[in-house]
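Write out this protein's structure.
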Amino acid sequence: MNIEEVNQLEALRTFAQKLEADQLARRMRNHEGIWKPTATAATELGYDCERRIVYRRVMPWAAQPVSPELASIFEEGKHHERQVLRELEEELGIRLRNRQSTFREPRLELVGALDAEAHVDGVGWVPVEVKGLAFIPGDDVEGIDLADAPKALHRRYFAQLQVYLIIRGLPLGLFIFKSKTTGRWRCIPVELDYERCELLLLKADRVRNAVQMFISAFEEWHPFNQDGPAPGLEDRWNEAVARASEFLPERLLSRAECTQCPFLNTCNPSQAAIDPALLIDDQELISQLEKRAANKPARDDYERTHKEIRERFKLTQGDVFFAGAFRIERTVDARGAHRFDIRRQEAAHDNSK
């Protein structure tokens, strides 16, 4: 390779590196700054942890910044959504309307945006939500029961569409899940589930009340805003946060959503460790352990339940716990990773013989 070719290769490498950086920077620009919601997004109601939802409303400044990888995933989702809607309309001849139509329910302080409505012969106009996923519902052992799907993401999507249906007074909706790997779709009709919607709306009501009480208590010490403390006023701000935090919803006992929560460092669930004495008669936990034991051959369901249990035990004091017939022993390896030996006590006794 001569000097000119060496220089050209180096120039190409420089170009390639800049191209990567520029693409990521462009995607990050859409997710910089603080999102300051004045209402609860329907997409948030799918989370089990109400404390997380309230944090989003009253302390958005405290959320961990969106990572470059997550920002890129969000942007990729927009591309998939546009492609699906274009294919629906231009190649499959489906009539669409109300793209990115928004709604607001003032009483519950709920907001949302629907991807589109599609006209279905014999049905009429049906709300459509498009999601691009690496693993679409119906693959392998996942099944298509979104309401109780093993994956939390799918359950949150179901809750999101249910809120759209109840607020708009519509009986039916449609999910179009696009595989990011193959491009194929899985289209899942969804019926309005009044019982689940009632629970979601009650959650929205509790969130609204908690937000209002937090702000009221905060303003007794410092004017409320969503930007965070101004330089030099941190002490007064922290006092206001401490007083208002008394009105935050309780943390989830399961801690299932903690590790992925952008408010993990603010909530500090590890500072509110679960008393192991509370486990011995905890019927919900015992039920989870029973389910874990029964469903071990079903990989996805087993892994989800196991993960929820592990997160709970990571924040439990002590190294040996008992819950019903189960004995749990925690060890920590050289890298600081928590490992748990979970077994029925009779099994532990048999293995010791």
